[in-house]
Amino acid sequence: MGILQDRLAKYTLPQQYKAKGVYPYFRAIEGKQGTEVEMGGHHVLMFGSNAYTGLPGDERIIEAGIKAMEKYGSGCAGSRFLNGTLDLHLQLEKELAEFVGKDDALCFSTGFTVNSGVIPALTGREDYIICDDRDHASIVDGCRLSFSKRLKYKHNDMADLERQLQKCAPESVKLIVVDGVFSMEGDLANLPEIVKLKHKYNATIMVDEAHGIGVFGRQGRGVCDYFGLTDEVDLIMGTFSKSLASIGGFIAADESIINWLRHNARTYIFSASNTPAATACALEALHIIQNEPERIEALWDVTRYALKRFKEEGFEIGDTESPIIPLYVRDTEKTFVATARAFDEGVFINPVIPPACAPQDTLVRVALMATHTKEQVDRAVAALRKVFCELGIIK
Fold it and tell me: Of 52, 116, 198, 339, which has the highest C-beta tally within 10 A?
């Protein structure tokens, strides 16, 4: 066995938890994702999806994907920089830019490659990138790929953010990159205070709206719109894999920034462009959420109900302000056990352990969709309360 194989053979986390029957990852779904799904012979409530608008199985979106494949084929066989740009890509970019209130937008093949490509393309060796310490892994990797100086501030701690800004040379670019909605904890970035610090220190702001699009703001325009600060945020990033029921992502900004990224973001230039079907599905989903405000109203109605019910039953849910509801366990082993037992009780949830959170903050993550009913929430709360009580997490 070689050195690499010998080293990697020591990674025993999967085997350790598989042996105990509580390994929670890569569970196969047998059909469309909805509020209830079939998995390995089990019929379970789906509370582990990021499909906040409940659109992945919508027949209008499926039909849009089929029509795009019939017209354009299954793929583009090249990058956007060369032969991979379709008029469909340009239409989606135009409509996304208008939707989030920016001059222009670029579409990438995944949301991850937006952050991992845009961030290192924006700043140079003498510049600074400043991030919240709970930012998404794609932001972390984008920072790692940059030659700039990297600074971190404590989660939503504006005094610490100011301390980091004070370390920066005044004449350098200071790029603050932050999640609009934090994907594990469900709380929001303190965008009003970040904007104040932007002006005080002549900084630039990039907001990741992956979990904000389709949830917050007018017609689901995101957290920047929710706070009325779209014009103060320099770059707005979003994904298609959540509320837009597809795969891919985008960055929106003023014309000069987009022109630079179009010619310098390596994950854009050197990746094959998004498939016609995925592009058409995202475009149709964008139209639906703009034309059906009742969908977002339903999401918030069921979210408020779920937050109330979990609080009533004694769950620790932290500072969430969104359809993402963390149920804190604060023990890695119990987090896996709770996930497995919840599945046995008919509820699919996701475990969150390091590096996605601090060791003392392990949790199971419940996520709401516009298509969930209050009756489904009640069933999930009852099942999870039973599991959490049996494990001694709550009384």
Answer: 52
